[in-house]
């Protein structure tokens, strides 16, 4: 799960997917990162922690880290939140195999629509919407691959 800061959107995506993995007892591993390093080592944003908690998901075990080229080998799917994250990750790909792993996460809920998960950092009311969008996408991903 990849966003810009790895404090708002992708920590929610990781937490939501981890919850589905636990519920369905899947042998999947999920992690998250940001294309930027500004918040490395930090907890998720308090607003993401709060909205996750309101859905009974605890994301306070997470710490922000920057996306690494190695992630393109270590993971089967690289799920990005918006066009900027998508392009920044795609730029690091060195093979067709790596490139094909990279997707906009919402394309699993609405194929081909290239819908983005809006960055909620500079507002206060976007977090529940982000949660709902990511929950829908994660549900579709679990249905497709499990
Ligand atoms: P995120 O949100 O990419 O969903 O974690 C942001 C967090 C921090 C910043 C931008 C977006 N920032 O500019 O510091």
List the topology elements:
Elements: E1 2-3, H1 9-24, E2 33-34, H2 46-54, H3 71-74, E3 78-80, H4 83-90, H5 96-99, E4 102-104, H6 127-145
Parallel strand pairs: 1-2, 3-4
Helix pairs in contact: 1-6
Description:
The chain is globular and about 40 Å long. The chain has six helices and four strands, in the order E-H-E-H-H-E-H-H-E-H. It has one domain (2-136): Rossmann fold. The strands form two sheets. A two-stranded parallel ribbon has the order 1-2. Strands 3-4 form a two-stranded parallel ribbon. With 146 residues, the chain is mainly alpha-helical. Helix 1 (9-24) crosses helix 6.
Q: Kindly provide the name of the CATH class.
A: Alpha Beta
Strand order of the largest sheet: 1-2
How many distinct domains? Answer: 1
For this structure, the CATH topology is Rossmann fold
In quaternary terms, these chains amount to: single chain
Number of distinct beta strands: 4
* Helical residue percent band: 40-55%
Q: How many H/I helical runs? A: 6
Low-confidence stretches: none
Overall shape: globular
Determine the structural class based on helices, strands and strand pairing: mainly alpha
Shape-level CATH architecture: 3-Layer(aba) Sandwich
Summarize the structure.
The protein has helices at 9-24, 46-54, 71-74, 83-90, 96-99, 127-145; strands spanning 2-3, 33-34, 78-80, 102-104.
């Amino acid at each position: 799960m990849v966003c810009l800061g790895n404090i708002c959107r992708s920590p929610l995506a990781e937490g939501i997917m981890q919850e589905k993995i636990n519920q369905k007892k899947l042998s999947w591993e999920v992690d998250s990162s940001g294309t930027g390093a500004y918040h490395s080592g930090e907890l998720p944003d308090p607003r993401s922690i709060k909205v996750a908690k309101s859905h009974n998901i605890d994301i306070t075990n997470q710490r922000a880290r920057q996306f690494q080229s190695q992630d393109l080998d270590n993971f089967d799917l690289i799920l990005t939140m918006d066009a900027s994250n998508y392009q920044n990750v795609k730029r690091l790909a060195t093979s067709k195999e790596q490139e094909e792993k990279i997707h906009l996460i919402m394309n699993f809920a609405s194929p081909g629509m290239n819908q983005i998960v809006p960055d909620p950092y500079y507002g206060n009311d976007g977090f529940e919407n982000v949660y709902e969008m990511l929950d829908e996408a994660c549900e579709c991903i679990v249905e497709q691959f499990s």
